[in-house]
């Protein structure tokens, strides 16, 4: 295996790893706050709202965005243009960092939302809207990264990379 395919594979691993790390950080923050909010409810003999679990899962989608980019970079590894490997690693590290940050801060916002929702019982849609704006950053990073990945494949393989992205996105929807 030459250097370009190897670097594309390394980039694929890097982008999904960074995305998953951000999801883990965000989920950890949101889960801790949600458990604390439920404890407060139990201590006050109030019902613990299960809707708070929505906040715990919010940062998980960033892992899926990393997986979509991983799939595309693995497609590029099959037929890269010369020099694509270095570009793939830089792209993976920067896109992965952006997606990671989105997930981590989304978890922090979800933690605050969980506490507020449990205390007041009000504002769920407002909290979800704020969390959704943070999610949008990860979506933008993924879309812009896809636009940068497509030219890394040899012309005959560009359609394969686009198809791989569509298949990965379809798998996420199902």
Structural commentary:
The structure is a single chain. With 174 residues, the chain is mainly alpha-helical. It has a single domain (3-173), classed as Four Helix Bundle (Hemerythrin (Met), subunit A). Helices cover 82% and strands 0% of the residues. The chain has helices at residues 3-43, 53-57, 61-78, 84-120, 124-149, 158-173. α4 (84-120) packs antiparallel against α5 (124-149). It is elongated.
Looking at this protein, list some descriptive labels.
174 residues; mainly alpha; Four Helix Bundle (Hemerythrin (Met), subunit A); elongated
Radius of gyration equals 19 Å
**CATH topology term:** Four Helix Bundle (Hemerythrin (Met), subunit A)
**β content, as a range?**
under 5%
Q: For the terminal residues, how far apart are their CA atoms? A: 34 Å
Count of domain modules: 1
Please identify the structural class as seen in this structure.
mainly alpha
